[in-house]
């Protein structure tokens, strides 16, 4: 009986300790970034380009911020409409369940695909085959392919969570599916759909491997044309650290990147919690 | 009547877009396979997979990716060895033992952790974990598969916690109440009743985490040391497949054995990860609609 008692306390202790350990690691990561990163963080850091003997030693990260934003905007605008159409197909319009099952399982399986492989594909397809070169457009389209499966699944969940009674009521009234979709389902799901896009943006902003081989270079001006290479925050962070340019600047860049991503995540959650979907009608 | 045409048009539009996008996604497999095909034919599958020397620029080129493949396995299996026990114990704590506020707070922070990009993890690992490891072990350069595993395990642990937590929460309270009313302790109920019930979902979240760890690029690139010697232990340096691709694809001449060799490495990684994720999804979807 005594050993059993000790054994149980030991397990209980292990469970609690691992929970607290993980929480500690989290706080340490965020705390470290804030503590080391905020030193270098000035207005000048955000608004000037990198300078110095080894580029990035002095000066700021303005072109990298703009590059990341350009990549994000193009990638999400390229991915959103196809993802929405696919999600609508899966929830509203699929007629053959076997066929939509195949599409569903392919898309789900692509979610976990390593981002470097999507980069490899982007390199072979956009950079070489379509001859875009290392450029903003190659990187953005690669990112679009990367976020597409995630976006479909999030949007599909958003559409599915609209109360099924609305659809039934609409069909009973003899209205077409398109009308229900446009007047009831889409307005209801709109906040969740926007939330999905924001999450996808956050996902794309942090991705380094795909743009490393398709779009990013060590130094470039703020993006102005589609066929030029750009700087991007995650790649800049990688270069700052791995070429031993400046540890302090690297911490500040990491902080900016994390803050950017967390903003997207928080906004997306807030959107879903605070804005209830527009009420179509009540049953 | 016009409305019906619009309905039909929308249906066709959505169907066509869905099919096109799926074709685009599948063309990823085709492209990676096609670009690497010549090297598989000239060198032979066995030579490439079991060959341990990578010298694509010599004549004749030597394209052996066993070293990188083993590095990938060491790094990801090592990460799983740390993350699985930690994640499961943490999920049990959150679901069964922690006060509600603590559980909520830890789960929220874990969700935040999944949002942090891998390059930041790689950077923190390289600037914090490695110096610390060097000091403890007394080596001059601490980059190793062990450090890569350590950081990878922190990156994938949220997936395991989330999967296990959801599985535990889905178990009806009757099981717990019955256990308690028979006079069994909470720990016993957890280990003997709840965890076996949740096993199936736990396995799928663990496989998901393994796929993530095997394909992760930036963290291993910055932490594993990038040497091309065969890794015999967890503590040696190595260069996983993903790091090889990221480092060398930009400098490889298009169509050269080097280029094809990198795509061969990509194909191997693709097969490893997509088989895992296809298997999870297949069993999951099958399980849901009998």
Describe the structure.
- The complex is a heterodimer of chains A (283) and B (290).
- Chain A has eleven helices and two strands; from the N terminus they run ααββααααααααα.
- Chain A has 283 residues and is mainly alpha-helical.
- In chain A, strands 1-2 form a two-stranded antiparallel ribbon.
- In chain A, a hairpin with a 6-residue loop joins strand 1 (50-51) and strand 2 (58-59).
- The longest helix of chain A has 36 residues, at 2-37.
- The termini of chain A are far apart.
- Residues 279-283 of chain A have low confidence and may be disordered.
- Chain B contains eleven helices and two strands.
- Chain B has helices at 2-43, 45-50, 66-97, 100-115, 118-137, 145-169, 173-181, 186-215, 218-223, 241-248, 257-288; strands at residues 54-55, 62-63.
- In chain B, helix 4 packs across helix 6 (145-169), helix 5 crosses helix 6 (145-169) and helix 6 crosses helix 8.
- The two termini of chain B are 39 Å apart.
- The chains are: A mainly alpha (283), B mainly alpha (290).
- The interface between A and B is large, with 86 and 90 residues.
The most extensive interface, with participating residues per chain, is: A-B, 86 and 90 residues
Overall pLDDT score of chain B: 83
- The SS-based structural class of chain A is mainly alpha
Would you list the SSEs of chain A in sequence order as H and E?
HHEEHHHHHHHHH
Q: Specify Rg of chain B, calculated over alpha carbons.
A: 23 Å
Tally of helical segments of chain A: 11
Kindly, what is the distance between the CA atoms of the first and last residues of chain A, rounded to a whole number of angstroms? 60 Å
